[in-house]
C-alpha cells in the first residue's frame, strides 16, 4: 500500500507540474491553436453590390481582393450557366471574358487567402438590366444545311451597329478541320465571315451567336443566343465565259459539263466576278420593274432560277428565247440564261440539269463580259475582295 500511494503521488505531480520543457511545449501548442482560429485578413469586394438591380451587361462586374489574393471565383446565372473569366496574375482582381446577358440574375462566389493561408469568402447576387430597345441578326446559311464551298456566314442586323467591335467579338465562327475565319463589315448593318479561300469540301462549320446583352449602339442591346451548324458539300465552281457563250461546270476539279448560255446583251451586260448562289427557285416570277427596267419584261414562270446578286442577277432557264441564241449570242437583261422547258418539267434540258446539280453556296464565276466586277456586298459575293482587303 505505501508503494502504491507513492506511485500515485508521483503520477499526480508529473501530470500537474512537470519539468520546464513540458510546460513550454504546452504553452506553444496553445498559442498555435489560437493563431489558426483567427479570422482571415483578406477582404473580397464584389461590384455591383449584393442584390443590385438594373446592372449594365458590360464593364460593371468586378471582383477584387485586399490584404490577400483571389484563389477561386465562380459566377453563374440562375440556370447554372457559368460565366468565363480569369483571375489576374497578381491575384488581386477578376473580370468576365465577355459581356453578361440582359434581364438575368447572377450569383457570385469568390474566395481569397491572406498571407497566412486563411480563407475569406463572399457570396452575392445581382440582376442585369432589362433593355428597352433591342436588335437581332438575320443569318444565312440555315442551321443543319449542306452548302457549297463559296457560302459565307452572312448576318444582317435590323438596327445599325455603332459598336462593331463588341458585336463581332460576340460571334464565333469555327471550322473542322480548322482554318482561320475572319469577319468583314459591309456598312453598319451587315457582317460576313469567310476563310481566305473557298471552304474545303466536308468542312463542318459552327456559328455561335452570343449577342444577348451586347450593346450594339447606345441603349440598344442584342437578344440572341444560338449555336448553328452547317456542312460544306462537294466543290462545284462553274465558269461562265460571256464572250464564248459557254459555262464550264467543274466538280472537285473535274469537268462535268459544258453548257451553252446566253448572257447580258450589249446594253445590259452581266457583271464579271465570283458570285455565290444564294437562293434557288424551281419556278419564279421576274418583273423588270423591280430591278429598274420599267415594263420591259414580266415573266411569271421563269424556270430553274438561282440568285447570284441582290440587285437581280440570276442564272436561270429560258423557254421563250430561240434555241439558237444559246451558245451564240448574248440577249438577256444581265442574267445568264440556259435552254429550258416551260414549267420546269423536262429534266433533260440543260437548265434543269444545272439546277438539280447545284447547291446554295456554289460558285459561279463570270468572265469576259464587258462590265465591271460585281460589288462584294451585292449578294454573297465577298470573294471579290482580296484577303488583305477582307481583314483590314
UniProtKB/TrEMBL annotation:
Primary enzyme class: transferase
Signal peptide: 1-18
One Pfam family linked to the record: Big_10
EC annotation from Swiss-Prot or TrEMBL: 2.3.2.-
Molecular-function annotations in GO: acyltransferase activity; peptidoglycan L,D-transpeptidase activity
Record keywords: Acyltransferase, Cell membrane, Cell shape, Cell wall biogenesis/degradation, Lipoprotein, Membrane, Palmitate, Peptidoglycan synthesis, Signal, Transferase
GO biological process: cell wall organization; peptidoglycan-protein cross-linking; regulation of cell shape
Residue ranges occupied by any L,D-TPase catalytic domain in the UniProt entry: 236-367
A single Gene Ontology CC term: extracellular region
Pathway in which the depicted protein is active: Cell wall biogenesis; peptidoglycan biosynthesis; Glycan biosynthesis
Residues annotated as the enzyme's active site: 316, 335
Protein name (Swiss-Prot/TrEMBL): L,D-transpeptidase 2
